[in-house]
Amino acid sequence: MSLHDYSLRRYRKGVLPVTGMALLTAGAAVVCKVRWDLLYKGLGSGLVYFKNLLTPDVGAFSELLKPALETVLIALVGTFLGTLAALLFGLAAASNVAPPWLRQSVRFLLGLERALPEVVILLFLVAAFGLGPFAGVLSLVIGAVGMLGKLFADAIEEVDPVSIESIQAVGASKVQVMYYGVLLQVLPTVVSYALFRFELSIRLSVVLGAVGAGGIGHELYRSFALLDFHRACTALLLVLVLVVVSERISVYLRSRVRQKGRPR
Fold first, then answer.
1. For residue 48, what are the CA distances in angstroms to 59, 229, 230?
2. pLDDT single digits (tens) 148-194
3. What CATH number does the domain located at 58-260 have?
4. How far is the first Cα of the chain from the last one, in angstroms, to the nearest whole number?
5. Burial class (CB in 10 A: 0-12, 13-18, 19+), 55
6. Burial state string for 165-190 with b = 16 or more CB within 10 A and e = fewer than 16
7. Cys bridge to 176: 6, 160, 172, 229, which one at CB 3.0-4.6 A?
8. What is the pLDDT of residues 185-199, one digit of tens each?
9. Contact 149, 86 (CB under 8 A)
10. Is the distance from CB of 64 to CB of 238 less than 8 angstroms?
11. Where is the chain membrane-spanning (predicted)?
12. 3-state SS assignment for residue 85
C-alpha cells in the first residue's frame, strides 16, 4: 500500500464530522462543568446515600397507603377528563371532520401545549389554584389534551371514508354520521391511547406530587428533605409497585382492546 492510502484527505468525510462532534462535546462538557474528580467523589457519597435507602420503614407503610391512593386517583381523574377533552380537540383537528381554518388553529394549539412540560403547567396552576391535588389533576388534563388530541386527530383522519358515505347514503343525520361513522371506528384506538396515557399519568403524578400536587410524590420529597431515608425507601417501594402494576394492567387491557378491534 502506498502513502496515499493513509492520507487524511482520503478519510476526511468520516474524520472531520467525528472531530467536529468531539470538539463540540468537549466544549459543552466544559460549559456544563463535567469533571471526572467530582464524578469519583460523588459516586462514593452516592453509595453511602444508597446504602441508607436499603432499609424500609415498615411502620410507615400504612401511613403512605393513603398518599399512594391519592396519586392513583389524581392520575385516573386527570386521564379520564383529559381523554374526553382530547377527543373533542381531536375531532376539531381532523381534516375529514373540521374545516381547514379550525383544523389549523386547533393543531397549532395542540402543538403549543405539547411544548410545555406538565411540571411547568403545574407551576402556573399552583399560582392560580394553590397547592393540592386539584392543580395536579388540571395539569394532567391539559397535558393529556396536547398528547392525545394529536393522536386522536390522526386516527380520525384515517377513518374509512366509504363507511361514512354509506351511512350518509341512508339519510343519517350529522350526529349519527359522527357517532356511527367516526367515533365507533376510532373507539378501540381511543381506549388504547387512554390506557397508555393512564400508565404515563401515574409516573407524572409522582413527579407533580413533589412539586406541590400532593400524593406519594409529596411524601417522597418530604422524606428526602428531612433525611428520613427509611421512610423514603418505603415511599420508593410504593412508587415502584404503582408503576409496575399500572403498566401491567395497561398492557393487558390494551392487548384485549386490540384483539376485539381486529376484524373477524
1. 23, 11, 13
2. 999 999 999 888 888 888 888 887 788 888 888 888 888 888 888 99
3. 1.10.3720.10
4. 65
5. exposed
6. eebeeeebeeeebbeebbeebbebbb
7. 172
8. 888 888 889 988 988
9. yes
10. yes
11. 72-98, 119-142, 177-195, 229-253
12. helix
Distance CA 21, CA 101 (A): 43
Mean pLDDT of 45-57: 80
d(CA 248, CA 254): 10
Q: Which residue has the cell 390522526?
A: 154
Q: How far apart are CA 217 and CA 211, in angstroms?
A: 8
State the angle between helix axes of 61-92 and 100-114 in degrees (0 to 180), rounded to the nearest 10. Answer: 150
For cell 396552576, the residue is 125
Q: In the chain, what is the greatest distance between 2 CA atoms, to the nearest angstrom?
A: 82
Q: Domain segments of the chain: what residues?
A: 3-50, 58-260
Amino acid at 146: G
128 Rama class: left (phi>0) / alpha (psi -120 to 50) / beta: alpha
- What is the reported pLDDT for 86? 93
Mean pLDDT computed over 40-61: 81
pTM for this prediction: 0.78
Kindly calculate the radius of gyration of the chain based on its CA atoms and give it in whole angstroms: 25
Closest CA to 223 of 211, 234, 232: 232
